[in-house]
């Protein structure tokens, strides 16, 4: 079975449902509430498991009740958590998320800097055996070490970037990744460039990896040499976008691990994310392999 290792953030999300996002100061009464597991790498691992592959997560969580809840949900999703470290004396990462009827969201997160940002990388043996590695770069030392290890092993090394890279690790991450995928906002934050084309050109000067940027409902743009190519978004009605980008990255790493071509892998990942947004909820809304292949076969 194909093994995908996801490295980075695992969170406990507290989700509040609203008809429209509350943007004004004051009290706002939600019409629904749920507590679910989140985090980019953790969600990606759950998406991989739903797609029928072996999913492994490397992360750090606190030794608190929130950490126990995070682990319990990962176990329920079928994710191997042997490389998840519980750190006594530190709080687990917690998010509060407002989700509107149209699927858009507003997210607040607290993660103690000592949990991931300032944590050293694990020993090489801790990464184990994998067919592809996906790092969300929230644990920068582990992301750099893991991507470099994947590169040396000759397997896909996928960097998921949606925020500015830590300066001490940026060159290592970009230099090691075989595939670099930004969110639209992440591209602007990481590169300082206002335009997508300009941002991808900036990244191309710093990595030998293949480059893409996710554009939500507008699809995926990737750089083919000096030319930009667009994969249009699938025509679906969004209900809940929470975790869709993470599902995209997990599915992308899986497709690359299976030896699918770059553009086919992007399409497989986009179909996975498109199906996710059509359903309310968190990880339970991630599609299975047969659903993704049916959508791909219908377009």
TrEMBL record:
Segments forming domain Carbohydrate kinase PfkB: 1-286
Listed PROSITE patterns: PFKB_KINASES_2
Source organism superkingdom: Bacteria
Biological processes annotated in GO: phosphate-containing compound metabolic process
Pfam families: PfkB
GO cellular component: cytosol
UniProt keyword annotations, A-Z: Kinase, Transferase
GO MF assignments: kinase activity
InterPro entries registered for this protein in UniProt: Carboh/pur_kinase_PfkB_CS (IPR002173), PfkB_dom (IPR011611), Ribo/fructo_kinase (IPR002139), Ribokinase-like (IPR029056)
Entry's family note: Belongs to the carbohydrate kinase PfkB family.
The name this protein goes by in its record: PfkB family carbohydrate kinase
UniProt organism field: Marinimicrococcus flavescens
């Amino acid at each position: 079975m194909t093994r995908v290792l996801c490295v980075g953030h695992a969170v406990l999300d507290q989700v509040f449902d609203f008809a429209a996002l509350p943007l004004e100061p004051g009290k706002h009464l939600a019409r629904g509430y749920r507590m679910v597991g989140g985090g980019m790498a953790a969600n990606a691992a759950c998406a991989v498991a739903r797609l029928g592959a072996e999913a492994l997560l490397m992360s750090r969580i606190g030794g608190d009740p929130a950490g126990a809840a995070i682990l319990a949900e990962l176990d329920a999703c079928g994710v191997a958590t042997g490389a998840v470290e519980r750190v006594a004396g530190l709080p687990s990462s917690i998010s509060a998320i407002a989700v509107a009827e149209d699927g858009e969201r507003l997210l607040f997160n607290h993660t103690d800097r000592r949990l991931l940002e300032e944590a050293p990388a694990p020993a090489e043996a801790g990464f184990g055996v994998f067919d592809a590695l996906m790092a969300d770069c929230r644990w920068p030392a582990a992301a750099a070490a893991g991507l470099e290890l994947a590169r040396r092993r000759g397997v896909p090394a996928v960097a998921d970037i949606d925020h500015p890279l830590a300066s001490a690790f940026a060159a290592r991450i970009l230099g090691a990744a075989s595939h670099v995928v930004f969110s639209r906002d992440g591209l602007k934050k990481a590169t300082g460039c206002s335009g997508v084309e300009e941002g991808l050109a900036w990244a191309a000067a710093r990595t030998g990896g293949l480059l893409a940027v996710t554009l939500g409902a507008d699809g995926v743009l990737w750089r083919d040499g000096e030319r930009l190519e667009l994969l249009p978004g699938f025509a679906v009605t969004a209900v809940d976008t929470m975790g869709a980008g993470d599902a995209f990255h997990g599915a992308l790493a899986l497709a690359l691990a299976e030896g699918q071509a770059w553009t086919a892998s992007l399409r497989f990942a986009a179909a996975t994310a498109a199906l996710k947004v059509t359903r309310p909820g968190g990880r339970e809304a991630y599609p299975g392999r047969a659903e993704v292949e049916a959508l791909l076969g219908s377009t």
